[in-house]
Give the backbone structure.
Amino acid sequence: SAVISQKPSRDICQRGTSLTIQCQVDSQVTMMFWYRQQPGQSLTLIATANQGSEATYESGFVIDKFPISRPNLTFSTLTVSNMSPEDSSIYLCSVATSFQETQYFGPGTRLLVL
Amino acid sequence: QQQVKQSPQSLIVQKGGISIINCAYENTAFDYFPWYQQFPGKGPALLIAIRPDVSEKKEGRFTISFNKSAKQFSLHIMDSQPGDSATYFCAATHQTGANNLFFGTGTRLTVIP
């Protein structure tokens, strides 16, 4: 399976600021996804990061709040904009090497907003 | 609306015992059912997965049982060990479609020595 890294691994941010999370894969992958996991909760898909085009967002998530970039087949970023304490979560990227393969997850970014 | 329902929320098992976690789904378009294991501070790791054309899949101490007509699947951990203590998530996806994973709510397993 692909090796996935995320930066930063954790951060503490002030309300109203923005944080960009990076996801790097050691091999080219077809699909990249961003999930949110609130403390003690399950995972919720934020969006599918599409290479060379706008991300596909799930219901309840919007581009202005969570802009996503995917400039190539091994890298994506998620920005959490204008943060509030409710954004405190673990943010995870996942990848799939092809359209019909399983997803593998990165280690996550633990975000605390004060 | 929760696409995948998972139970129990927490489970305590003695070392050597069998841990059983159950999941149910509604969307008949789902065609791939993975289980993920998550330790504190880590991302979910794929444990085992099944497609609906088989009723059971076994990998070591881990077995998935799948009942297509009932739209249910379960994870059995045989000879449970303290190192198995983690949160387990079932999931479902339509791989021939968008391949979005829909997760269950998770089961926190504690194996007592």
Remarks:
- The interface with chain A takes residues 32, 34, 36, 41-46, 49, 89, 93, 95-96, 98-106 of chain B (CB under 8 Å).
- The two ends of chain B are 38 Å apart (CA to CA).
- The first strand of chain B starts at residue 4 and ends at 7.
